[in-house]
Structure formats: C-alpha cells, structure tokens
TrEMBL record:
Keywords: Signal
InterPro entries associated with the record: Peptide/Ni-bd, SBP_5, SBP_5_dom
Domain Solute-binding protein family: 89-407
Signal sequence range: 1-21
PANTHER family named in the record: ABC TRANSPORTER SUBSTRATE-BINDING PROTEIN, PERIPLASMIC BINDING COMPONENT OF ABC TRANSPORTER
Lineage: Bacteria, Bacillati, Actinomycetota, Actinomycetes, Bifidobacteriales
Pfam family of the protein (one): SBP_bac_5
Protein name, UniProt field: ABC-type transporter
Listed PROSITE patterns: PROKAR_LIPOPROTEIN
Organism of derivation: Bifidobacterium actinocoloniiforme DSM 22766
Length: 465
C-alpha cells in the first residue's frame, strides 16, 4: 500500500557561490572572480548521505547512490532540464510498427574511461546481468518487459545468461524484443539500471561497485565510508553533458541541518534540499544564494502487505483509515511551508500524465469521522493489537513530516499508537523491511512510467480501492 502523503514539487538547491557541477547554464565563480567567469578547476562540495548500496548502477536503490552513478556513467539517453530526451550513447532508437521491438544504433567511438570500447553487446550483457536474479541486482525488475526475463529468474541459473529478447547483429546495433508494445521504452532506458558496465565489472562485481569505472562526465577518485566520495572530471569525456569544474566531492551529513550550517559558514558549496527548520528563512539568508524550481519527486508511506492486520479486506480498510487520518494540506502548509503540494497521484505534477483525479482517490481526502468508521470496520474483522512502527532514515529529511503523520493518526484513531522507528537502510537494501516506511521517488524520466515491480511488491496500491 502506498498512502501518498505529500508530493514534492519544489526541488530547492542552495549555493554559497554561483557554482556549477555539470550541465547547467549558470557559471562557476570563486571569490575575486566576476560573475560569468568560470573556474574550470574548482572542486565543488555537495551534501549527501552514505549510499545504502555500492555504486553498481543496477544495485543503486537510493537518491544518494543515484546522484553518483548518474555522474559516473552515460546511458543510451539522458534528459535536459526541460525534460526533453537527449541521445547520449544512442544515435537512434527506432520502434517497429507497434513498438513491441526496437532497433538501437550506437554512436561511434564510445569508450569507458579505462579505454574499453562500448558496443551493442556491452549493453546486452549489462542489462542481462541486471535482470538475472542469480546476480542479486535490486534494480532487475525494470527489465521484466524484455523477452526472456522470466527465463532468468532462477536463482541457481547461469549468471552469464543473456536475455533472449536482446541481440547484436553488429557492434553498433542492439535489437530489443519486448513482451508487449511499449511506446515509453526510449524513456525507460534512461533509468540508472540501464547503464552499461565494462567487462572488468563481472570479474568481481562487489569490488567494482566500490571503485566503479564508468563512461560519464566524471571519474571515480575515492570513497571514505561515512565521510565522502570524490569524483574528478574525465578529460576524455565527449558526451552531451558539459562539465564546468574540476570535480565534485559528496560529503556525508547526518542531517540536513548540519549541512545547511556548513553552507552558511562557507564550508559547503551546494545543498540540494532545505531543512524544514529553515524553510521560513532561507530565502532571506544573506550568505545563501537560493534557487527553487519544480522537481520530479514525490513522497509516500508504504505499508508492506505481509504485516499482521494489513492483509486482505482488513488491511484495505486499515490503509484507507490511516490515509483518511492524514491532513495533507496541513502538513504541506505547516511543516513544509508551502514548498510542496498534497499528492493526488503516484508521481509529481511536473511529470506528463500526472492526474488530480485517480479512481479511489477519495482516500487522499482528510476525513477524521470516515477514518474512525473504516478502522472500526477493520476491527470487526480482526481486533487491532500491537504497535504500528514507522521506520525512516535518520540522516534524511523525513522526521518532521513523519512526526506530523504520527500525531495526526494518533489524534484521529487513538490507536494504533504509531511510533517512529529509526533503523531503516539495511532493511530496505536486503528487502527485509518489516515496518511501514516513507518512500521517496526521484523520477528521472519526464514522462510517466510504470513503477518497478520491486516497489509495488512492498505493498498494495491504496488508490485501487
């Protein structure tokens, strides 16, 4: 179940100086430089948290890892700031008549930063490796629409098997046969799981994930666990994203408040979100240069479908009751100071196809009386017992709105007496999460795509009834 709580439509970036990491039209300046001057050797410091997995693209599960993988690798396509699709490694992606098959032509001269050529089989092998359950890649389910996916779902099968729906008639041509027509496939390949891997990765995938070799605008330099990850500009990069600095160092912070304090003190160049405690004042802070624009992200609360009291008809009633207990407009206004909007869909308003009226969407409306009625009907099936814990990452920005959610549900229902429960990351990574938890999705594609099965498998969609 996903009780969509708040849809984040404002992606706020703070800068102490006008600094540019990659691909933005603004310029990188240093003290003493005039506006418009670019320091092409500047090392930009950016906030982050420790990634919950290594940096093998098909194993990346969180925004922290996504930030890094998408700078280290180029895929077939990327997206402009305006959402338009831009070919990166692909020269063309051509569908057949009903979009059930695609022919992908690669640009000539593609190479990884270690000099290894990138060809059609590079992609066929990387996608097959990710899709193969024997390889334990968390992003594998996104390949389920490619023919032959089910044949690779044997955990004891060959780890080197290739998806039957992929073929490479020559070094620059990749043919893809899908299980069904899919006109969104050219956008889907922009997902991080579709990024290519060099041959060295398969010799020791765990070691590769800690010291990745990519083909993107930056090269990996170093990783000090729980402290920082440093990337440097790849001088040999010839892709569509233009680098205007010498590198980026991602520093780990235990809280956004600590990162914000470093921005104010001049010890951090870029902060990609504003702590809730500073939302009312950051625009007027003289030492902070603030930028705000709509962003493709949303947050929701996911309740695993295997929890006691959250299965079958009883579970559907309890999910609806909890959803009706949340005053999303109040959370958006009082907690987020109007920087977000209440969710009406499982995506962000900036994404094509976003809807304000989904079937079953009435459960997103706050109604304390209806919530209590639904909870009472669930109790008639099986009386509630136990404590409902909500897990969230301590190093993220979820605590304030989770606090508001907990208070709202408790005041409306009296029980299940929900409680905050911090340990979170490992449970998600090993697919062992046993508590409701916030789900934050940063959408890379500008069009609506199906959620990966791995996400839907963690719960039942509340909005379907």
């Amino acid at each position: 179940m996903r009780a969509a709580i708040v849809s984040a439509v404002s992606s706020v970036t703070l800068l102490t100086l006008a600094l540019t990491a990659c691909g933005s039209p603004s310029s990188s300046t240093r003290p003493g430089q005039s506006a418009g001057q670019v320091d092409s050797n500047a090392i930009i410091t950016v906030n982050n948290v420790e990634p919950s997995s290594d940096l093998t693209p098909s194993k990346v599960t969180d925004t922290a890892g996504w930030k890094l993988a998408t700078l280290l690798f180029d895929g077939l396509v990327t997206f402009g700031d305006d959402g338009r699709l831009i070919y990166a490694n692909a020269d063309s992606i051509t569908p057949n008549q009903d979009a059930s098959a695609y022919t992908i032509k690669l640009k000539p001269g593609l190479r990884f930063s270690n000099g290894e050529p990138i060809g059609a089989m590079t992609y066929a092998r990387a996608w097959s490796f990710a899709a193969n359950v024997a390889n334990g890649q968390t992003g594998g389910s996104i390949f389920s629409t490619i023919a032959g996916y089910e044949d690779l779902q044997n955990p004891h099968g060959s780890k080197d098997a290739i998806l039957s729906g992929l073929s490479a008639p020559d070094a620059s041509t990749l043919r893809v046969q899908l299980n069904a027509p899919d006109s969104s496939f050219p956008y889907k390949v922009g997902d991080v799981s579709f990024l290519p891997l060099p041959s060295v990765a398969y010799k020791d995938i765990a070691a590769f994930g800690r010291h990745p070799i990519g083909n993107g605008p930056y090269r990996f330099k170093s990783w000090t666990p729980n402290q920082s990850i440093s990337l440097v500009k790849d001088p040999g990069y010839r892709g569509p994203r233009k680098v205007r600095n010498g590198g980026v160092t991602f520093r780990d912070y235990q809280s956004l408040e600590a990162a914000y304090a470093d921005v104010e003190a001049g010890n951090l160049d870029v902060l990609d979100a504003v702590p809730v405690s500073s939302l009312a004042t950051y625009r007027s802070e003289p030492r902070v240069q603030a930028f705000t624009k709509p962003g493709p992200a949303f947050k929701s609360l996911t309740i695993p479908s295997n929890l006691p009291h959250f299965q079958g008809a009883e579970g559907a009633l309890r999910r609806a009751a909890i959803s009706r207990s949340i005053d999303r407009a109040e959370v958006a206004s009082k907690v987020f100071r109007g920087s977000v909007t209440p969710a009406t869909d499982f995506t962000a308003p900036t994404i094509a196809g976003y809807s304000k009226r989904l079937n079953g969407g009435e459960v997103l409306s706050y109604d304390a009386g209806k919530a209590r009625e639904l909870w009472k009907r669930a109790d008639a099936i099986s009386p509630w017992s136990g404590v409902l814990e909500i897990a969230y990452p301590a190093d993220g920005s979820d605590k304030d709105w989770v606090d508001a959610l907990v208070n709202s549900v408790h005041q409306t229902l009296g029980h299940p007496s929900p409680q905050q429960h911090v340990p979170y990351r490992q449970g998600v990574q090993d697919r062992g999460q046993r508590t409701p938890d916030p789900l934050g999705v940063q959408l890379r594609s500008p069009v609506r795509l199906p959620l990966p099965g791995g996400l839907l498998g963690r719960g039942v969609r509340l909005l379907s009834g």
